[in-house]
Amino acid sequence: MDINEIHAILLEEFGEAAVGAAPHDCIDPWIQVAAESIVDVATFVRDDERMRFDHLNDLCGCDYFEPDEKKAKKFDHEPHVEVVYHLSSMSLIHRMKLKVSVPRWKDNAEGSLPEVPSVSSVWAIADWHERECYDLVGIHFTGHPNLRRILCPEDWEGHALRKDYEMPLDYHGIRNR
Question: Is the pLDDT score of 70 beyond 80?
Fold first, then answer.
């Protein structure tokens, strides 16, 4: 089953507001999913007999922000963060990618982390992937059973993979630069 067939099924089931008008056709195509629909779509693609996406290979966060003002003028989209879900069906031997895009800051309040519903109830491995994404990119996964840092210490400030992240000069008396 290819991405267009999968998208047609999702479009019929959830509508354009949830899964977009068409998949993004490129070398590695994906389906854009609205944040509020991700748990329902994820559950559907896992359970539907035509898809059976029973394995979450990876979940990662991406920050689309250009801090350099000159380069930002050439940036062809609004700053945002994305959660990318790489899925596989072991039994049907096919793969696909879903993406959820949200503003960099919740309610445009700088420092207020954006929110995406957790899919850890759909794929248990998401528990670890979402914690890593939270820790490094600063995306808050609502409904996550144990959302806390996984790589950085609990008292670490900021999220190191954010494009505007500034490494602290020192941490507990240890010089970082």
Answer: no
Domain that holds residue 155: 3-175
Residue 129: give its domain's CATH number.
3.30.460.80
Looking at the 3D structure of the chain, how many domains does it have?
1
* Whether the model pTM is above 0.90: yes
Tell me the C-alpha distance between 156 and 153, whole Å. Answer: 5
Residue 20 sits at φ, ψ, to 5 deg, of 75, 170
Q: Tell me the residue type at 79.
A: P
Phi, psi of 110 (to 5 degrees): -50, 130
Q: Which two tokens stand for residue 65?
A: 């922000």
Length of the chain equals 177
Cα distance between residue 19 and residue 13, in whole Å: 10
